[in-house]
Amino acid sequence: MTAEAAPAAAGFASLDALVRPRSVAVIGASDEPARIGGRPIAYMKERGFAGDLWPVNPRRATVQGLTAYASVEALPAAPDVAIIAVPAEQVIPTLDSLGRKGCRAVIVFSAGFAEMDAAGEAQQEKLAAVARGHGIRMLGPNCLGLFNDSIRFYGTFTASFEKGFPIAGRIGIASQSGAYGTHVFSAALDRGLGAPVVITTGNEAEVALGDVIGWMAQAPEVEVICAYAEGIRESTQFIAALDLARRNRKPIVMMKVGRSQLGGAAAKSHTASIAGDDTVTQAVLEEFGVVRARTTEEMLDIAYAATKRIYPARNTLGVLTVSGGAGVLISDAAEQAGVAMPPMPEAAQERLRSLVPFCAPRNPVDCTAQVTNNLPLISEFAESVARDGGYASILSFWSQTAAGRSVGPSLQEQMRKVRAAFPDRLWVMSMLAPNKVREYEGDGWVCFEDPSRAVNAIAAMGVFGAAFARAEQPAAEVPLPRVALPEATPSEAVAKALLAEAGVPAVPEHACSDSEAAVMAAEKIGYPVVLKILSPDILHKSEIGGVLLDVTNADAVKHGFATLLERARHHAPAARIEGVLVAKQIKGAVEMALGVFRDPVFGPVAMVGLGGIFIEVLKDVSFRRCPFDAAEAERMIRSLKGFPLLDGARGRPKADVAALAGALSALSAFAAAAGPRLASIDVNPMLVLPEGQGCYAADAVIELDGGGH
User: Which Pfam families does this one have (predicted)?
Assistant: First the structure.
């Protein structure tokens, strides 16, 4: 574990009493194994939990053959963890009794809290306060509980074990939904995947998803983390957990559902209006190399591949196939997944053609079905792909050939030898041979029937590897500027001055209170100029005709000045008018847009995308938590589909991407330093000139909370 990860790991270790208890009390214990208060006892008895198990039931002397206790106070000692399965109105006094007894952790099955109504939410807040007052880690309420089969602890009432208990493995499942978390467990069991640790968080009154992921990130029981989330309500522990998992090289595959839009005040900002909760969460997941699964099948595909613990930092895919059609399908899937498939070296291609003249050895390497007539050729081709191609990941497509009685045994033996000679590669097999899968897996292969699913899993391993490699590099320090925000939402001129001081350059301009001053400013700047109405109350000037372009002489400046004042009086009679902004008109630039908005969970989030109206029409944007350095800013810019516009597409000059990245990074630092009063920033357009000539903010809006709107 790295030094940086140690403090976070120590904090997450406080869940040990919850997940690795040596003594368990069940409050509301039932003698009937099928009831909610009876299942945990029945499961732990069946599985052989080695710790103390203390049922609490005032109406029975024994519960399922165990001595029962009349109350919490009557327990022989303070339990490490207590399972609470009593009616909602009894939960708070029960928790208080456990706290006075010295209990360290509780699992609250009981429902009837925040999931119900406002009164239930108030009761849940009281419950959380009691837990915090006693220093108790509390899972739930309204949760299905957890299990840790490595110590045979079953603090859950799920019925999923009726189809089987966990098998050996190192997959951990963290889920806000109890039913779906155990659904994933059952689906993993059907696929022969070991998921011995499952923790469901329910209402998250105290322990949240981030705490659970963090515990798994430092627990030896877990090597791969599957997570299910409906919404992230607490960011500090969540981010610390993702960071710890990345530093400890534990991949996280997450299914995050829900794509709601930010509403209310946030929708005032153009930046916020195109970013919902889901967009921000996605940006955070990408930051830490968490792979987002769209389906349960995809989640388990990725978790399965990750159990091999081979994560290429620079992932390239080599394909060996007996089917040209499968090669095309795999190539399409790789392009969509973003996995590079470089060609084989020319010399290697020539050598393979000398072995099979009608093969297609570029990549995919189609050795054709003819190799089955000369089986030693299989290893010749496979070795060349690994040795000469140097690919980090290798996908072999053999379809039903792998199971054939005539070819299968020799194929398996030859591929086993080649794989063993290159153990650092991720070896994946696509085959229709269910009776052979366990044998191939024993040889170290990852096996899929569908090659497209195989490619998606391979792509995920590369995402993990790149994230783990980034974690090994020292984090760049982002210096924060001193920011003194005005009392109220500023005008455009003041907004641009604030940003320019922080490192976001603005177009040369002057604020003018009368037409004579405007003429003097225009002549000083040089024609043509742009005229814009200047008002802290008119944030989106183009909507009222408050911007005039191509103003080329003094008469046009005077006429334009009067026109803008008249339009402002007509469309926004109550607005405060400070005058007109006279700015240099820049031509030959690429219009981009920068922005910031304050996410209610993750704080200030920065955005970059194509400028003008295209940002709202195309939504080709990239988001990142603030602050970040210029290297990360450039990565965001290069991730845009419209990046070729900056990179010299169709003979255009290359734009000053370095300057744009510097401005974006400076904007992120400004936002991080500004504090919670900053609601949003829109810089649109940001005019990016050719390489070496810089970039300039042509318009800027800073919105403040309580800014008078």
Answer: ATP-grasp_5, CoA_binding_2, Ligase_CoA_2, Succ_CoA_lig
